[in-house]
Amino acid sequence: MGGFYRGRPHHIVIAYLIGVPVLRLKGHYLAMATLGFGSIIYKIVLGAKVFGGADGISGVPEFTLVPGLSVTGSIAARIPNYYIAWFLVLLAALLMLNLINSRAGRALRSIHGNEEAAAAMGVDTAHYKLSLFIISAVFASIAGIFLTTLQRRHSVLPKRRS
Fold this sequence. Notes:
162 residues, two-stranded antiparallel ribbon
């Protein structure tokens, strides 16, 4: 469980460093820059020995949530993993519903409707867009942690079926 908490600040910092320049773009340029960063990170991870190169990292240990409850890729743990996954989905949905119904959620809805009008009304659009980008990166990293644990390996290449 220690790796889960140690890895989180790294993901937040990376999301911040990518989000600051990219979120200044709009429209097609934003999509192209996001795809570009995704390709760059893919190539870096694929070539870095610390991530196992093209072979990835195998033998990922089980992820203990609380003593007696862990996420693992074993067939015997399918049912507990199913309930853990649904618990996490419901928790994420509850967090997002609270965000939507908060002051920040109203600001995000106004940015979605018309960014220039929201800025004219005093909404710090850059701050809210960057915060939402970081929140989505944290959700994606949590999903990646659980996927890596379930597959018992980490690789940027798809899993080979035999």
